[in-house]
Amino acid sequence: MSNSSSMPQFLLLAFADRRELQLLHFWLFLAISLAALLANGLILSAVACDHHLHTPMGFFLLNLSLTDLGCICTTVPKAMHNSLWGTTTISYHGCAAQVFLLVFFLGAEFSLLTIMCYDRYVAICKPLHYGTLLGSRACAHMAAAAWATGFLIALLHTANTFSLPLCQGNALGQFFCEIPAILKLSCSHSGYRREIGLIGVSACLMFGCFIFIVFSYVQIFRAVLRIPSQQGRHKAFSTCLPHLAVVSLFISTATFAHLKPLSISSPSLDLVVAVLYSVCLQH
């Protein structure tokens, strides 16, 4: 049994053994990261410069873009570095920082998606109270609560995960540091159960937010269907459906990545799901 703090580094998953494929992965990740940086950079610039976008939705969209950029900058640069230089290592403290930042940004992102659903609900179902319920002070408090929630969840998970003794080597089997991969190296049953309990609590909170989102959208769709104008219904649906699609993909991939049964777990499946929720959804 070896204490996790004495382990100098972890071994990340190499995408390929051949140099040509490693360079292909580097250029692919570079293209994805540049597209994400460009898309979110344009959103940040538009919201900051256009006073017509100085609305609650624009404010929350700005915060959401920051979480997307944070997720991309947490996982992709190290993967690109390893593919370019043909290495697979990450330091112990670098791994802990990666876990903390990824959970932090993902937690804040889901909280913001829930808040944005509330924004749509108030805008469509209670338009006369929109200015009161979503004033500048209320929006700032809700955004701060979203970031604080992500920070608290990340702190608890990171502190518990990296306090576990590891005795199953140091190969993570993933291209970035994530909690399920580190738990597979643990030999502490009590610590493992404690982290599974934390993941369960986080999943319950996520499920509660999902129920709130579903309930809100039921009310939204009922209100939209009562709009007499077809153009008005189309406009309302067009502002809600993209958000609902992102929420559904976010919840399904994150939940599957962390709570899937061991019987269907495989390295290739884990890799595909990880790339989807940590990279591809951050656009």
In short:
This protein has 283 residues and is an all-alpha fold.
List the helices and strands and how they pair.
Blueprint: E1 9-11, H1 19-49, H2 56-85, E2 89-91, H3 92-125, H4 130-133, H5 136-161, H6 179-183, H7 189-225, H8 230-259, H9 267-280
Helix pairs in contact: 1-2, 2-3, 3-5, 3-7, 3-8, 5-7, 7-8, 8-9
Classification by helices and strands: mainly alpha
Q: Describe the largest sheet.
A: 2 strands, antiparallel
Based on CA atoms alone, the radius of gyration comes out at 21 Å
Spatial strand arrangement across the major sheet: 1-2
Written overview of the protein:
A two-stranded antiparallel sheet has the order 1-2. It has 9 helices and 2 strands. It starts with 8 loop residues before the first strand and ends with a helix. The chain is mainly alpha-helical and 283 residues long. α1 (19-49) packs antiparallel against α2 (56-85), α3 (92-125) packs antiparallel against α5 (136-161) and α3 (92-125) runs parallel beside α7 (189-225). The chain is globular, with a radius of gyration of 21 Å.
Highlighted features:
75% helix; single chain; 283 residues; mainly alpha; two-stranded antiparallel sheet
